[in-house]
């Protein structure tokens, strides 16, 4: 009997072949060290530079998952979160991730009701972000 930790990499790749970009980015990262290693060598993930999550209503909780993924992601350069209702709390999660992410160059936070507080979190993160 196989557990996830003993599945051959090729089989894990086959599972990943049937996932969309959002799942690869948001749900398959940071599960465990082995999956992160496999994901980092998976061709589709390594080529993922743009992710459009526009109008998914992810809210602050979804923004937290995206932020968790952004912390370790080294391929994504463009992220569209337009109209997701992340609010100030979601903006804070994203801001924390921006402090360590070095590849994201374009971030769309339009129509997210982040307000002055959320905008300040983003501004503070961008002051130190590379």
From TrEMBL:
Going by the UniProt record, its keywords in alphabetical order are: GTPase activation, Leucine-rich repeat, Repeat
Repeat among keywords: yes
Q: Name one Pfam family in it.
A: LRR_6
At the top level, the lineage of the source is Eukaryota
One GO term (biological process): nucleocytoplasmic transport
- GO molecular function ontology, one term from the record: small GTPase binding
| F-box domain boundaries | 1-48
Instruction: Check the record and name the InterPro entries matching this protein.
Output: F-box_dom (IPR001810), Leu-rich_rpt (IPR001611), LRR_dom_sf (IPR032675), RanGap (IPR027038)
Q: Does the keyword Repeat apply?
A: yes
Recorded protein name is: F-box domain-containing protein
Q: Which organism is it from?
A: Adineta ricciae
């Amino acid at each position: 009997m196989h557990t996830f930790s003993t599945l051959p990499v090729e089989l894990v790749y086959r599972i990943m072949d049937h996932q969309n970009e959002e799942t690869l980015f948001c749900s398959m990262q940071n599960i465990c060290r082995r999956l992160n290693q496999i994901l980092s060598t998976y061709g589709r993930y390594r080529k993922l530079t743009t992710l459009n999550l526009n109008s998914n209503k992810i809210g602050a909780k979804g923004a937290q998952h995206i932020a968790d993924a952004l912390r370790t992601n080294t391929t994504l350069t463009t992220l569209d979160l337009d109209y997701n209702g992340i609010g100030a709390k979601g903006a804070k999660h994203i801001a924390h991730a921006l402090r360590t992410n070095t590849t994201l160059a374009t971030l769309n936070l339009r129509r997210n009701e982040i307000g002055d507080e959320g905008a300040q979190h983003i501004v503070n993160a961008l002051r130190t972000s590379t």
